[in-house]
Specification:
Heat Shock Protein 90; alpha+beta; 44% helix; 6-stranded antiparallel β-sheet; Beta-Lactamase; 11 helices; 359 residues; 3 domains; elongated; 27% strand; single chain; 5-stranded mixed β-sheet
Amino acid sequence: MLASPIINQRLLEHLNTGVLLLDADLTVQYVNPAAEALLEMSGKRCLGVPFYDLARESSEESVDAMEQAIITGHSYTKREATMQLHNQQQITLDYSVSPVSHPETRLPSLLLELQGRDRLMRISREEQLIAKQETTRSLVRGLAHEIKNPLGGIRGAAQLLERELPSTDLKEYTNIIIEEADRLRDLVDRLLGPRHIPKQEVVNIHEVLERVCQLIEVESQGQVELIRDYDPSIPELEADKGQLIQALLNICRNAMQAMLEARPAVEHPTLTLRSRTVRQFTIGHQRHRLVAQIDITDNGPGIPPELRENLFYPMVSGRADGTGLGLSISQSIINQKNGIIEFTSSPGKTVFSIYLPLE
């Protein structure tokens, strides 16, 4: 038994796949709600508009391919296509093009099926990042144990040797051994990150951001402009306030140093701190009802492409005098709160986004 037109319509409206019907001129004749969400435009505004005005790939080949599909009657599918929407936003999606006859006019038409890939790609990327962080932490813990044991022995032997030296002039050498052993021990402790149990308390995220702003203003001596864009409706969360300040300060400090070192190419160093809430947000494999999103944006030179893949690993730094521990420690602190830090970077704009569950 064939379904009635009303049933067919309701089925299309409840699909997670975006569906559009285009005529021979590639003008939109029908769009379902899933396609409206992907294209970020209401159905009424989409009707009668050429599809390439709503979403366009960088090359003209996609339009030619659709026109050829109408002529030849051949279907095709494209994976992970990057499209620029009418509002200049970019999305990644899979889409299939199938030549059909218009259900009413019987004229040649195209049926487009759109599947958004951005969310799936982000979840996959986050799961990989979290897994890498866990592996790195396990490796660092094991390495720290192997380093600290002989360091303790070296330091103790140097102290015993110091007592037996016949001349005080020779103590200079044992002092060097002790000081270098202490320096290496401190470095290993920093690699391990925060070692005490987090002190959970009710924290207003904007108090944390304001404290970070104060510290950056002092360190930059007023050379960096700070822009605040806060959402006052964000509820308080339970966290270790000191650790949270440290995590955000590491990111802001890196941005400040990158901008100041890039002068005069960066004429007006600017750091923007933005807070918002996001509903029904997935971090890794876990979905959260409400998440706080903190964006830290700078107008510096950007992160070198060769560093981006391993940016959150310990000892990875783009600065000659950098230790490469700040971002690793920040990610570790945010991970303890079941959150995550992500970033996008290009010359003139780098954005670090911190996501913290608010349940």
